[in-house]
Design a protein that fits this description.
The chain contains ten helices and 13 strands. It is of the alpha+beta class. The chain binds 2-oxoglutaric acid (AKG) and fe (ii) ion. Belongs to the iron/ascorbate-dependent oxidoreductase family.
């Protein structure tokens, strides 16, 4: 397959892209339109040779038992080294996990006219069907459609115990926001030219990700892109920017991206847990001392949204801007 040059690649009217990738595919697009083609250095080069990793696995059932101290140590190590881990035995039954994936797939299989009812340009709409990352702003579009759902927040955070912070700091979790992004990455005729999601870190505290059995998530580790091997019925958990700040840099919000493939469509359900819009996040006082001074300035979600609408969404720039020098 050739690396299509600008002379041969297709261009469609802008309103076609705004309707989403699935809609394009349903309308018989067999080549990646120019709108989605990344510049040469930004393209995924390790689609074929990309190494697959087994992320550290945390067994949630063991966390509740006698081995808790050892499991908390493994959890801390995973958050420091990878910023990611897979969670097994999380208590959500396989039946519920299967139904979540199934109902999500069925949404994207609805006729376009049905899906379109949920489209909105308002970033705060509680239910929103959209495409790319930020379709109002993206220069190059990514090969993803999504359904965003505002949810009732979860409550239990063993991860705070792994950092060793005390009760009062758990107040950070009061009034938190929970957003669920159901991501659909349709199969792509030229996956070497585009990405399902560009390199980014997640803005919130934590992200829990349920994925089907199709590989695609890649994390940056020691300068390489590593593909996460899905474990059936498990959740991938990753540290977000707010948690990196709260932990004063002990835990890492790691850059990741999504590669697409020509064989099958991929589905993931990402639940992003973050602080309320106007709540400031700052390093926990318990994690600051003379030898480990405060490393980040106060920040909130409104700052992040402003960053998103004002500049290109690239790598870790937001977190870099919050660092104290
Ligand atoms: O689909 C995936 O595997 C990752 C999704 C993701 O990174 C996100 O929604 O922030
Ligand atoms: Fe992400």
């Amino acid at each position: 397959m050739s690396n299509s040059s600008s002379e041969t690649c297709i261009q469609l009217p802008e309103h076609m892209y705004q309707k989403g990738v699935k809609h394009l595919c349903e309308n018989g697009v067999t080549q990646v339109p120019k709108k989605y083609i990344l510049s040469e250095p930004e393209r995924p080069h390790n689609l074929v040779v990309g190494s697959c990793i087994d992320l550290p696995v945390i067994d949630f059932a063991q966390l509740q038992g006698n081995d808790r101290p050892a499991v908390l140590r493994s959890l801390a190590k995973a958050c420091q080294e990878y910023g990611f881990f897979q969670l097994t035995n999380h208590g959500i039954t396989n039946d519920v996990v299967g139904k979540m994936i199934d109902v999500s797939k069925r949404f994207f299989e609805l006729p376009f006219e049905e899906r379109q009812r949920y489209m909105s340009s308002n970033l705060y709409a509680p239910v929103r069907y959209g495409t790319s990352f930020n379709q109002n702003n993206d220069g190059v579009f990514c090969w993803r459609d999504f359904l965003k759902l505002s949810c009732y927040p979860m409550q239990d955070f063993a991860i705070l115990a792994s950092l060793g912070v005390m009760e009062e700091d758990k107040a950070i979790l009061d009034d938190a926001n929970q957003l669920t992004m159901v991501n659909c990455y349709p199969s792509c005729p030229q996956p070497q030219l585009t990405l399902g999601l560009p390199p980014h870190s997640d803005y919130g505290l934590l992200t829990l990700l349920l994925q089907d059995q199709v590989e695609g998530l890649q994390i940056q580790h020691k300068g390489r892109w590593l593909t996460v091997k899905p474990i059936p019925n498990s959740l991938v958990v990753n540290i977000g920017d707010q948690f990196e700040i709260f932990s004063n840099g002990r835990y890492k919000s790691v850059v990741h991206r999504v590669a697409v493939n020509s064989m099958s469509s991929r589905l993931s359900v990402a639940t992003l847990f973050s602080l309320p819009v106007n709540h400031n996040v700052r390093p926990s006082p318990e994690l600051i001392d003379e030898s480990n001074p405060r490393r980040y300035r106060d920040t909130n979600y409104a700052d992040f949204l402003e960053f998103l609408s004002s500049s290109d969404f690239k790598c870790k720039k937001f977190l870099e801007l919050r660092k104290l020098r």
